[in-house]
């Protein structure tokens, strides 16, 4: 892979940050905290925790502690430069460096499963893409939860509250590339479109005019995403915007009632009492590492768990909240019986389809040429302009299977409605795949992502040790529906590439993708090369107030308990459907209830967190 010098710089910058014990109210050791009791203790400084901490700190009468297991994002250039997102994961100090269990649907491969371990969480290390999903997605959440406040129309003010649509880094006129009326203009999070023009931009847009199957949509974030449009990213002034830069750091600089503790691992939430025969959880246990002293901090009002779809269920189970039988087998004292904790994990499966091109320039030139890479980095440093101001792709397409697709003869449609896509197409002007990077050639990648999966997985404990990674099984491509969609998405990408606008660019499909034609060959290609789109959800899912299943209520408070609320992607929900799942060589039907939005998930979590903060403050 490219950028060995950047890797060295990243590691150097990370290492020199550690000696500073206290930076303002940013603490690196629990023993340095000015108090042991706060009004709110928030676990996890990603999107959910960062937004809630910031909004709660606006009430100057409250005291808030935000805890992050990782380091500060400040001063890490690779986080700030949008295009360098590719060097942030996996296997770095800002990543949890998780690995999945062997995936039956991926030929028993175990794959890296990056999650951000740094202020800002995954919003500090992700691909910066900002997509909301369809209005159908949110209306279904409202229907299943019984809370109309989660509907598209009700949540849109919170979506806009988070946003600030900003000019592109190159200053070009974005008319016709985004609908300003669909966006917020005064929120903390910068969102921009097409910060640097890619060589294939005009070809992609021309293809939408040639191919009725792929219409142009001016703004896929307006609730009806079907079609191809310009990608929107959390980039402001050519620099990454994240939960850390947009929420946490500004609040630290403005308010004296917010403390942030980094480099500190929450090992469990603590039961602090019983009220009306219901356990109360208003404390957390903290350790810097496996051999360090344990500290306890309490919350007068609430503990808010925002550790993400992997960390949140792990902490809950370590605290005795989950399947009592399984917890007891690990020597954990059960406190709340909630069998859905860690269940229903859903994620988007990602597959790269690659073409060799005769382009005169592509991202591949920068990736292989250290001199050119240094020049582009210098332009970014000096002016915040150039190709490093943008993310990985300039356009995204959203498509559905036809209504008469054969898969619907045996499977229910897991999408939320007729305006909701089944799959996503992403155009990269470079080689982007799980396989080794070629030493020569220029490439175009049309990556596909299954965005309405039927398969579901789990997050379970490997042991009672809070410093041992949990067992993560996303169950990729274990559903026949999922395999059908990823296969048809690859074929859709080929149809898009057949547009006349690409005729002078594309030479031939590259590598194993080029040889995969039949259903069986495409299945084999997907199982051998597919991976994650990094969008896990639903492991602490929301359900209606009177539901006997689920983990949290519609206001995100933990069921069967008091004092504990969850605000992150783990709470996302869905309707029931029947999926045919293959496990251990046999097929069986399962009732699938969780729902991952049909989009990159960070936008959804910003909206969830904004509403959660309003619920907590009594202003929703």
Brief write-up:
The chain has about 625 residues and is of the alpha/beta class. Helices cover about 25% and strands about 20% of the residues.
Please describe what this structure looks like.
InterPro entries: FAD/NAD-bd_sf, GMC_OxRdtase, GMC_OxRdtase_N, GMC_OxRtase_C. It holds the Pfam family GMC_oxred_N. The protein has a domain at 98-115 and 165-242 and 346-532: 2-Layer Sandwich (Glucose Oxidase, domain 3). With 620 residues, it is an alpha/beta fold. Helix 2 (47-56) packs parallel to helix 15 (602-617), helix 5 (152-162) packs across helix 15 (602-617) and helix 12 crosses helix 14 (519-529). Helices cover 25% and strands 22% of the residues. Strands 1, 2, 3, 4, 13, 14, 15, 16 and 27 form a 9-stranded mixed beta sheet that branches. Strands 9, 19, 20, 21, 22, 25 and 26 form a 7-stranded antiparallel beta sheet that branches. The model is unreliable at 1-22, 575-584 and 588-594 (pLDDT under 50). The chain is built from 15 helices and 29 strands.
Question: Main attributes?
Answer:
620 residues; alpha/beta; Glucose Oxidase, domain 3; seven-stranded antiparallel beta sheet; 15 helices; 22% strand; flavin adenine dinucleotide binding
**CATH fourth-tier homologous superfamily of the domain at 98-115 and 165-242 and 346-532:** Glucose Oxidase, domain 3
The average pLDDT score comes to: 93
CATH architectural type of the domain at 98-115 and 165-242 and 346-532: 2-Layer Sandwich
Overall spatial form: globular
Q: How large a portion of the residues is in β-strands, by DSSP E?
A: 15-25%
Number of strands: 29
Query: Between the first and last Cα atoms, what is the distance in angstroms?
Result: 47 Å
- What's the CATH first level of the domain at 98-115 and 165-242 and 346-532? Alpha Beta
* Main beta sheet strand tally, sense and closure: 9 strands, mixed
| Overall helicity | 25-40%
Oligomer: single chain
How large is the radius of gyration? 23 Å
